[in-house]
# Entry
Amino acid sequence: MTNLVAPLNEAVAAGQKAAAVDAAMIAKLTDMAGDFAINLSIAILIFIVTIFASRWASSMTRRGLGRVRGFRQDPTVLSFAVQVVRVIVFLIGFIAVLQRLGVQTTSIIAVLGAASLAVGLALQGTLSNVAAGVMLLILRPYRVGDLIDVGGRVGTVQRLDLFLTQMSDANNVKIVVPNSKVFGDTILNLSGQRTRRMELKIGVGYGDNLNTAREALVGAAAAHEHVLADPAPWAGVTALRDSSVEMTLQAWTKSGDYWQAKADVLQAAKEALDAANIEIPFPHQVAVPYGDEDEPEAPPAPRVRRGKSSDPAPGQPATDHGSEG
# Structure
């Protein structure tokens, strides 16, 4: 009987010990779950506050920088600054959320470093667009609303962000160009200056009076309402072509009036030359014969009479070609 009581007591003691361990583990897990629930709730609250804080910070940034003249006249830089502030607030809130959930800052930096290296290798082209976008925003070779020519594409800038430049051409066609291509190519800002010069090349005949032609061209340009008086319009001979004398007419106008003024001045120049009886030569097509079929026929060879005699040439004595004897 004694032999059975000892193992039974040991089993009861082991069960009590296991129950105590399980109770302690359950209590610890409960505490951990409670702490995690509290931290998760606080992290969610921090995230919600971060969203509202980012909106408030971006709104205050836009309102504050909008009072600065340089930012007010350039909406591109203003939008970029607002985006930077919003991203910074989001990063701060994201780090606070991770720290509240128990993630160490050093591990965050290590993970971000490795991730940035992998993303940088995979997105070299995209990162080059970002770098080019930052340089375009800093250097500002053009702004929203400017008329530019990039790689032969002419359009009005509608938007400039970190990745793309969006334009609209004269036919209202949307043109999207990566910033790396824009920054690496030649940029022609057609509306970057307040005034712009038109240059029209017109040919006149060699037999016409060049002084009369020059006065007619200058008068046609000066009579237009959108042509500036200073600098005054100028015209002169710039080349001697195969069938015409090339004259160049130069006139200045405001950048916004350039295209319509150029068309009007060109029409007025044509009408002024017509009124002054100045010829504007144009090329003609001339058919040039070639080949055997078009060659003129050779005249027939003179006939030679054979016999006793042939007709003497005028002024020459007759000769006998017959046999002697």
